[in-house]
């Protein structure tokens, strides 16, 4: 008897659910972007897109991370430049022969003669400010030059000593490239006096002691 009552209750619940279940009417909906007069039969919907400005107002604000560009300080700009002052109209600014050339060509600012087996100081009529943390050295081109070092705090005129090892005089004209200027980084550590130095395998050996 109880089993029959339970079945009847279940049937009643199912009937109630079916009666109160919401019904959905299916209509054929098609997108129609033509004028209403051209629609024949069936339901039509004209889709209206909001203007772009309205879409922009409703879209969420997305902030993209902007790349951080380090500010170039004035000291950094000066330290990366080779500042040159011309002292006469005959002075020629240093220049490199190609993009990957290591040295800047230095030119003569006067007519000169280097005697055979002799030497002569050739002016460039340039004053050069070498970037801090570097120094410049004078290197030869087609003729031998005396070793020269230009410190970062030197502001005087730059001259080049030419050595002529041949038996004939060497003529120099205005604008002739006589040497090259090479800028190199330099380390200037503080001096500290010590009692002893670290021992090494070489020790005090020099003048070809490691082999020929």
From TrEMBL:
Its cofactor is Mg(2+). Residues 90-211 form the dUTPase-like domain. SUPFAM superfamilies: dUTPase-like. Involved in nucleotide metabolism via production of dUMP, the immediate precursor of thymidine nucleotides, and decreases the intracellular concentration of dUTP so that uracil cannot be incorporated into DNA. Gene3D superfamilies: 2.70.40.10. Its EC number is 3.6.1.23. It is an enzyme of class 3 (hydrolase). Pathway: Pyrimidine metabolism; dUMP biosynthesis; dUMP from dCTP (dUTP route): step 2/2. This is Deoxyuridine 5'-triphosphate nucleotidohydrolase. Residues 56-70 have a biased composition (Basic and acidic residues). The chain crosses the membrane at residues 6-24. It comes from Salix viminalis. Pfam families: dUTPase. GO terms for biological process: dUMP biosynthetic process; dUTP catabolic process. One of its GO terms (molecular function) is dUTP diphosphatase activity.
